[in-house]
Amino acid sequence: KAGVTQTPRYLIKTRGQQVTLSCSPISGHRSVSWYQQTPGQGLQFLFEYFSETQRNKGNFPGRFSGRQFSNSRSEMNVSTLELGDSALYLCASSTGTGGSLSSGANVLTFGAGSRLTVL
Amino acid sequence: GNSVTQMEGPVTLSEEAFLTINCTYTATGYPSLFWYVQYPGEGLQLLLKATKADDKGSNKGFEATYRKETTSFHLEKGSVQVSDSAVYFCALSDKAAAGNKLTFGGGTRVLVKP
After folding, report:
1. What does the alpha-carbon distance between residue A49 and residue A56 come to, in Å, rounded to a whole number?
2. Per-residue pLDDT reduced to its tens digit, B17-45
3. Of A3, A6, A18, the residue nearest A77 (C-alpha)
């Protein structure tokens, strides 16, 4: 079956612009999470959506936003880009609803990422 | 809050050498533990997982045991290959918390030389 698909794979923007990244989860997966990966900060959680609702949010400014559609596809948006927003943005999907000791491990399947460069 | 600490790299090994990557965690709840691997230019792939104390996760010759008493989840492989060159991430998720948030360690780059 198809994996997690992220588009675009690479993009270059200038400071002050905005960007929208897209993520198509594995069919049947209802949870989509976003992570930012940078050499300095490592992997940081941005937010998670489940059934079109934001369920968790990391410590990022309001310039970072996201949404999920009824088909579970998700987008994240970064407005007023800064140089420090240059990063690999990873999307991950999961079947698990999370939060239950009986559900076992919440296994996330990651996409290849969208590499954003801000000039 | 939750945190994961893993040994800094890079770790440089010769082919067929023994690999150990240390990982310790701090969690307020009762976490599940994971190792993910990232090959150059790619996203993260799940390598193995363990959901409760004394569980051993294993895959592709890699093993890690969930040690609650030492809050550790060290990754081991008995004989590495050049193809194991990658960045390895230890991570946890809090089963008692809603959602699927993962907390990652800083990653350990492994380079295996022929």
Report:
1. 7
2. 999 999 999 998 779 999 999 998 888 99
3. A18
